[in-house]
Amino acid sequence: MNKKERFNRYKYSMGLSSWEIASYKDQENVIVVNDGPNGLRKPICNDFDKQNDIIKTVCLPSISALACSFDKKACYEDGFILAQECLANGTNILLAPGVNIKHNILCGRNFEYFSEDPYHAGILAASYINGLEENGVGTCIKHFAVNSQEFARTINSSEVSLRALNEIYLRNFKFALKYSSPTSIMTSYNRINGEYANESKYFMQRKLRQEYNFKGFISSDWGEVHDKGKAINAGLNVEMPISIRSNEFLDREYNKVFFDEDLILRDNELYEAIKKFKNKQKIDVLDLSKAHQKAVELANGTIVLIKNDSYLPFKKTEKILVLGSYASKPYFVGQGSGWVNAYKNISFIDVLKNNQIECEYVKCFDEENVLISKEELSKYKYDKVILFLGRNSKEDTEGSDRKTLRLKENQEKVYQIVKEVISSFMVVLITGSVIACEDIYNHSSALMISYLSGEGQSEALYNNLYGEYNPSGRLCETWINDLKQNPYMEEFTKRNTYYTYCDDDIYVGYRYYDEHKEGFILPFGYGLSYTEFKVELISYEVKENIEINLKVKNIGEYDGNEVVQVYVGKKESSIYRVKKELKGFEKVFVKSHQEKEIKIILNKEDLTSYDEEDDTFKLEKGNYQIYICKNAFEVIDEFEIYLDGEELTEHLEMKKIIRKSLDKDYSFNTPGKFLFNNEKFKKFIVDHHIDLDLTDFENKYWSIDSTPLRLLIGRFHMSYEQMDELIKYLNSRPHDLSKDNNYDHLIKEYLKWK
């Protein structure tokens, strides 16, 4: 093709604006993509400098809250409501859901992800995706793959064995793509085993296109593309938002013999994926009040009851003392791409007053301070006490990770005051992920957790606390009290800019704790109810798949939902295995003193193990143990079946992941911290008259420490060509990157590391 056509095709290999794309083949069919997973986060204007003004819409439960529901129907309904929001506001594709495995318990973005288990994450994601796709709106499943931390996310490489990669970190995507058809998939910022996913034919072609039969288009995350030519050749359809590379730079860099063919193929794939949106009709009016009520209904099933010493449910005649600022200023949504400009912001105090509940409220703490004393607290009269504690949006956020599992110091002080003054009280924890809560569990009369359940959270908490809705949420991840309980967490707390080593291999989450039950642990799948259920095995049959028939009896006094979980293990095996892993689950509603029969089907393909030598999954022949469970630790019943399969090559021990040396040369991927003390960099800036203030450079630009040079082009007012020239200049003379890495004082001063 000639240069003019090639330059025009470059335009359509990237976003047309912050939130718009189109194919070269049909340039009139402009597609709008927007965040987010728990409500439409749509800027009023597409201009790059006007992204903070967001439309108002209904904030639904976060992905982590949905995961706690263990409810496929609820996930579908959530997707349906999101589809209505998108259709009413001209959005064609919603950039959701996130299905990454919650490997790093400190990851700031865990509230945007389903689970620590690939089956649980993939199955619920498929229902969520179907709720959108079957109602006229596309989805973008993300972040492919192994996105386990936010620190240095654009540079860091997740180093993981091929078995763990395929059994844990890719299988969640595999399950989702098996049971749904998302319009697109978004690649992650991080590298995997040293390679960016969108530059890897193994990930893009071998896995996505061939093995998972993905038919949609592949998009980068915003500002993610490192080597555009390599990415397009590997399979990337769209770079988002707009490339910082000029057409001339692109044309100079890439071999046109193959690159022209790649451009055509990538555009054809994009066209086929988005042509269904041509001439799509908007819905004229979205009833936000009705959507809010749906948000409340969905939130009802996400609340997790952790402990109840006959303290709950509350009676409406009881006087309630409510403590903690979250009761009056609700916290129900995280930051970053998961933030929503909520239609309603109803506090728990408002809900109590609306229901004529006699109550007194004490704020107790603000962002930093303790606002109550023992003497003041002892003056109040009450029948029951509820203390609100939790995280905040600075911790549940894209772009940074937490530093501890503990609550903020002022909240811990308030809790100690309450514990010393009040003999019997309950706690509600508001959070996007795990909080150290052993002491709270031991000393409270009841404990309830809300995983950022959206704008219906306060009403849902009321419904659960007062028995209007029987709690039915289950933990979507294992809760521990101390990072030392998992020795592999040390790898994340080291904060290595370049590499994070996943030495736990396939022993992620409950798979590890099932064999190491030391210390305080709330297991994956754990949750209580106001009623009691009895689950009985009726029969099972091994045919093409394994069919398990169960009877669920509600032998208590409240109607409610039970979550039946089926795990599978293999005690005798030629390869190392976890004790048991989730392979089926069902949420079933049963009225008091009634029973229902359910069928859970286990797919034999889901019981296969990954063979590194052949890069394929194989079913090992032999006996398998089937566990009917209440959670990952509590087995109700078990039986054994024989499955015909293959003999596997013996592999009984995990291999240690080989450590890698740091890069020796500067590149577009080099962290900005290496520029702090580099005199050649400063000389280049001066000599080229680049508009960058070098005065007190380290203190002024400390936040660039783990940002790659390619993402600093805009901030440094440089062109891509100039950055390319700078990198070549820095590499033209002897240098040692390690000597430039002198920034620890900045981390301590600005991030207040302990």
Write up what this structure looks like.
By secondary structure, the chain is an alpha/beta fold. Helix content is 27%, strand content 19%.
Strand content: 15-25%
Distance between the termini: 58 Å
User: What is the helix fraction of residues, given as a range?
Assistant: 25-40%
What is the overall number of helices? 23
The pLDDT mean sits at: 93
Summary keywords:
754 residues, alpha/beta, six-stranded mixed β-sheet, globular
Quick description:
The chain is of the alpha/beta class.
Secondary-structure map with pairings?
Elements: H1 3-12, E1 20-23, E2 26-34, H2 63-69, H3 72-88, E3 93-94, H4 118-133, E4 138-144, E5 157-159, H5 162-169, H6 171-179, E6 184-187, E7 191-192, E8 195-196, H7 201-211, E9 217-219, H8 228-234, H9 247-253, H10 256-274, H11 288-300, E10 304-308, E11 320-323, H12 348-354, E12 359-362, H13 374-377, E13 384-390, H14 409-421, E14 426-430, H15 438-443, E15 446-450, H16 457-465, E16 479-480, H17 490-493, E17 499-501, H18 510-513, E18 521-522, E19 533-542, E20 546-554, E21 560-569, E22 581-590, E23 595-602, E24 609-611, E25 616-618, E26 622-629, E27 635-643, H19 679-687, H20 697-700, H21 720-730, H22 737-740, H23 744-751
Parallel strand pairs: 2-3, 3-4, 4-6, 5-7, 5-17, 6-9, 11-12, 11-13, 13-14, 14-15
Antiparallel strand pairs: 1-2, 7-8, 10-15, 16-18, 19-20, 20-23, 21-22, 21-26, 24-25, 26-27
